[in-house]
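Page 42, continued from yesterday. The earlier attempt failed because a stray header line got pasted into the input along with the sequence. Redoing it now with the clean sequence only.
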Amino acid sequence: MVVGIEIAVERWPIAGTFTISRGSKTEAAVVLCTLTDGAFTGRGECVPYARYGESLDSVCAQIEGLRAALSNGATRDELPSLIGAGAARNAVDCALWDLEAKRSGNSATALAGLPRLKDLTTAVTVSFGGAQTMAASAKALADRPLIKVKVGGDNDVERIRAVAAAAPASRIILDANEGWTDANIRENMLAAARAGVVLIEQPLPAGNDAILATIPHPVPICADESAHGTDDLHTLLGRYDSINIKLDKTGGLTEALRMQKRARELGFGIMVGCMVGTSLAMAPAVLVAQDADFVDLDGPLILKEDRKPGLIFNGSRLSPPEPELWG
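This time it went through. Structure tokens are written below.
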């Protein structure tokens, strides 16, 4: 039973500016949920996302609204009946996982029935900007095996060519963040194919992507904003080849593991991604990412300074979390 609940807003400066087609930001604003049973403490972090109608205040209020249920012994499996998917449920769900692991003396990995965690290779991100600016950023990362490139504006063909030329040995993922249109998607996809791009993430706006069922996919297409939980998966068949699982969308690790299992059954490829947050937000996602085709958990690398202790990165190599961080 939970006897103590703390909700805190934290702001973590970004190293420089992080830009996607929707805009730029210079800090990661996160919500930290801390649960205690009197003897042990569990933590979960989430990132409210305005694109999904969330704010720091709304997410904090949602977590506060669970206080009575948690004090009365609500479990992870009961959370979906108490709160919808999203950032607030993610923070609480992951805090409950952490608390259960600390209380039981077993790792979250063992509680989830997973084998020993292995190191992962994560993508690193090139922010949206002018073609030459992006090429310079890509060149600085040209020794990394996987680069995720933010596109989604006019003249993306030029951006694609410039970045691919700057990092010829790297595999490249394009993330359009819903920024392409029916009018330019074919041209952009062909440019991506010519450049050897391995995946295109959410090229069209969610709910306005029917054309994906009727045009060729010279590069596999991954759903992000269109894919939130397990119940969404059947609607994506025929339009998307892969899905991006983010805990802030699914509402936590519990649903993310369920979604991953069902996605594999339906034949989808899997990417595990993140919002820009600290290592505490990434740590639970490492469990899901063990069976992913693409891993994009570089959020802490975008920050000026990470939580301590944090995840250990060696270049693009990401080691599993230590119990002092989470799980």
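Notes: The CA atoms of residues 271 and 294 lie 5 Å apart.
Reminder to self: strip header lines before submitting.
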